[in-house]
Amino acid sequence: MTDVKKLVEEYGDQIIKNRRYLHAHPELSFQETNTAAWIRDHLTKAGIELMPGITGNSTVGFLKGSQPGPSIGLRADFDALGLTETNDLPYKSTNPGVMHACGHDAHASILMAVAETLARHRELVRGTVYFVFEQGEEFLPGGAQQLVKDGIMDHIDYMFAIHVNASAPLGQIDIHDGVRFAAVGTYDFKIRGKGGHGGFPHKANNPIFAASELVNDIALIPALKCDPLANCTVSVSYLHCGVEGVANVIPETVSMGGCVRVLDTDLRQSVMEEIERLGNSICAAHQCEVKTTMVYGYPACKNDASCVSIMQDAAGAIGITVIDCPPSLGAEDFGYFSEQKPAAVAWFGMGDPTGTHELTPHHNPKFYLYDEKGLPLALEYMLSVYLKAANTL
Ligand SMILES: [Zn+2]
Ligand SMILES: [Zn+2]
């Protein structure tokens, strides 16, 4: 049995220093050039080969073991968000208006620690381990899709990841066997009627009436077009028309749009097609022109049973409480990987269990991770997950 705790001790507080360095230097999705350079530099110095053909800021390192075994991918994203940190911490963001408020700085430092530890202890690697550093998770189209197009899932048999959770205390993970997050899509309609004078509606063609019909019919899709046992929501998120306070002008155009979230990727397809069909037919009935933009975002994120049981067992073995969290209509582009190969992602509690710092939501200017205890435990956990997977899959 490998003494994982000893490996964590050997790595020391570098994991905390690395996370705090990344936290102080956040970069927006798809603009993470300095972070990518930091990752490549660290991997190279550790003697880890970089996979050729990976585009953008995403970076994949790999280590081959001397013994046969599975090809296992471990994934970390590393982009930050456009908000201003209000924490007063010595390592707070130094990039105005940009903040690591989802913990992707922690993901990168944890995966780097796993990579550097395994590079020093290659005897622990069976088969090949891939360290997948993914750009742009927060922003459509997401970095995972491009990594799949670049062919990484042709090499990787199983993929694992954790996402830190600042809203849950350290010492617990939640993981769900099956679909965990929704498939997402967005729609946008630019509707054109004919503007005119409020006193002569018959000489104009008011596009607001097409839009208002669309609002109602789109909202009815989950009730009328989806199995009542399916999980689907369709939002109307914006509707812009006319000029505030100008009552005697019939507007020429309306723009409206919103999003679709559904736990079944195939159902998303039919819901999106129905929205498009309604846009075309209702606008045609009102003799309006419509320009429609439908964007298919992340697919549903589905955890594989065998990967889930590895992540559950690894947690239990080091005293982490495992919670089964029901699916939600949030989204995670890890779904692009789990569409291809068995994969699982767990939510790793990293809030302060002592109560000194409040548990914070993600994407919040006060987002806080209890990193001094949390990161070493996360390293212990991910090493345990890897070793369990490499020895059993
Ligand atoms: Zn996020
Ligand atoms: Zn995130």
From TrEMBL:
Write down the superkingdom of origin: Bacteria
Gene3D superfamilies, sorted: 3.30.70.360, Zn peptidases
Q: Which residues form the Peptidase M20 dimerisation domain?
A: 186-278
Give the InterPro entries listed for this entry. Amidohydrolase, Bact_exopeptidase_dim_dom, Peptidase_M20, Peptidase_M20_dimer
* Coiled-coil parts of chain: none
From the Swiss-Prot or TrEMBL record, give the protein name. Answer: M20 family metallopeptidase
